[in-house]
Amino acid sequence: MLSRRSAFPLHASVLVALLAASSAPTPLYALYQAEWHFSAMTVTVVFSAYALALLGALLTAGTLSDHLGRRPVLFGALLAEAVAMAAFATAQGVAALIAARVVQGLATGVATSAAGAALLDFEDPGRPGRATLANGITPVAGMAAGVLASTALVQYAPAPTRTVYLLLLTVFAAQAAAVLLTTETAHPRSGAWRSLRPGIAVAPASRPAMKLLAPGVVAAWALGGFYSSLGPSLARLIAPHASRATGGLVFFTLTAAAGLAVLAARTLPARTASFAGTALLIPGALLTLSAPHPHSLLALFAGTVLAGTGFGAVSQGALRLLLSPAAPDERAGTLAAYYVLSYLAMSIPAVLAGLLTNLYGLQRAVSLYAVTVIVLTLAGLARTARQPSSV
Hints:
globular; mainly alpha
């Protein structure tokens, strides 16, 4: 059996791998488009198939590990993730790509809440706050690692649409085997079938923070969804003759900046981190909005850095405010509720952006998207400023 000390980094690596797999297709969309001849709208549908499937899993199975145990739930989800990677590697068209994204989303939704709760369970009592920090940084670190590896393979590998998925399949299979060697930390209890009824289980003590943080979280993840789905297309619009890797580097820049912000924000009060991060989304969105007009990649990447920094700070502050007051048996549900809100914010606006791109062109869609994010951000800042600091 793995020791408690070894189990913590294992579950952190699971979250990194899950989010690496979620971002791996981003640099490949241009290759898929060139081979299968589909539109920007189809790109956002493929992207959102993953996010909506993940939402369905969180709404139904987000608390399943509280009832059945972390270990069996996580083992099954990782095996399903490996199946999804095999489906990606063998996909021959858009329908197969969407199907693989759906399987991946379901598996990730189940695994994310279970692994995140396990991190809290395995936290060293002598190092409080480490699990919340890990829950904040592993998703963005995973997305950064996934998009960077995929971008490198696009540039240098002979079969980039297969290689990255076969590597991830191997990782998930190894992690599934390692999870079986960990100690079970949840105490299985009855009610597993009832827990599958769609619903959101936010800890009562965390509900005021959820209401306060919602606009900022929605704005941050909506901006992240844009960069993930249409970031490469925007880079090609601005610099049509740039390297194929440029589109992937846009999303890598976002996630790398977010990861650094999570680390920096851990020393700030949680509410301060969330407020400052929300404020940074405004200049990030404005620079992104302005980038197509002078055809400036510098403006795009500067906006991406600001947006990523805001994204990371918002995520770090929000997770600390939400998870700190939750009881141990409320953690998985509260974490799942946070991800439900986040992925709704990430997927629905991205689909609308794809529709707007088809109707009016990418440049106008970028403008409308940026304005929407700014309005949400201002609403979040106003709500935070009005609430007492004790909330």
